[in-house]
Amino acid sequence: MKKCYNTTMKEKHDKQHLVQALLEWYDANARILPWRSEPTPYRVWVSEIMLQQTRVEAVKPYFERFVNALPDVHALANADDDELHKLWEGLGYYNRVKNMKKCAQYCVKHYAGSLPNSYELLKQLPGIGDYTAGAIASIAFHLPYPAVDGNVLRVFSRLLVSEDDILKERTKKKFQNIIKEYIPIERCDAFTQALMEIGALICVPNAMPRCNICPLAEDCIGYQSHQAQRLPIKEKKKARRIEKKTILVVVHQKEVLLQQRAEDGLLAGLYEFITLDGEREEEEVMAFLGHERIHKIIKLRSAKHIFSHVEWHMQGYLLEVKEKLDGLWCTQQALEQQYAIPTAFKAYKDALYTWWRTQE
């Protein structure tokens, strides 16, 4: 049963005043970001896909490297998969970049290598949903469409004291319609970015929004009625499934053995160290490779990696073998320049580099 809260202090606000206050704040406080300096449709698209579930500061160097290597839709459409994965290495959620390549190929085939300047057509492209379509349409094409992500949902939940669960799709649809009423036609690009910015810098998650310095405080019903800190409403997610893995970093002299994951499923098509299901003891690992082939075995530290719906609990071993086994062996240079290793294996990649340094 929902609680009732007193909202009599302020039950509505002046939309025009709120928009003006937001844009004035943005003009004075907007961060300098590489994709803002030249907001072409391609650059806006790349940045928005990268920024999904990734911090702005982490994205900056990736964005620069990506657009330098693949400066337009044609280049992305023709990119080699290994090159593409290497450019994306460390950002995670690799399906994002795989869908980007599919989208680029579609645009080459149907739109002469450009992104269409239509919100509805953008939504039909692979990997582009309501939010990304809204961001490209408003920022790059100056069309009056909202881009509603978690930041924007949080801001408007507090502005309007919404009791709707922001994790539900119907809530997003509801706010898309509401926010359309606020968009200033002459500055829809700035409005979209200003909402993103205030959600990232001022109207922050958890229970500590910076209401004392927020330019929208006067128009925020949540702040005026002392409810901002309890919002937005988010139902708890289901517990992630836990999977145990054993990671084998198999080395011979200055090369390491890799394997490529299947072309479907989690981390599809990426490279990894030998990965076994379950928690394997040292004796099981040696038997798996063959006792007679192993010169040395070192137990590595445990590690954990969280995906959207599953959590890997890993233990690892570094095994120095007497001679090369069948498979893909690569040098340190090849690992750095060619083969993308997912962030899930970072602890074991670090252990490998430490091993290599001891061999110098």
UniProtKB/TrEMBL annotation:
Cofactor annotation remark: Binds 1 [4Fe-4S] cluster.
Alphabetized Pfam families for the sequence: HHH, HhH-GPD, NUDIX_4
Q: Which GO terms describe its molecular function?
A: 4 iron, 4 sulfur cluster binding; 8-oxo-7,8-dihydroguanine DNA N-glycosylase activity; adenine/guanine mispair binding; metal ion binding; oxidized purine DNA binding; purine-specific mismatch base pair DNA N-glycosylase activity
Cofactor(s) for this protein? [4Fe-4S] cluster
Keyword set, alphabetical order: 4Fe-4S, DNA damage, DNA repair, Glycosidase, Hydrolase, Iron, Iron-sulfur, Metal-binding
Entry superkingdom? Bacteria
State any GO BP term from the record: base-excision repair
Enzyme class per UniProt: hydrolase
Domain named HhH-GPD: residues: 50-201
What family is this? Belongs to the Nth/MutY family.
Protein known as: Adenine DNA glycosylase
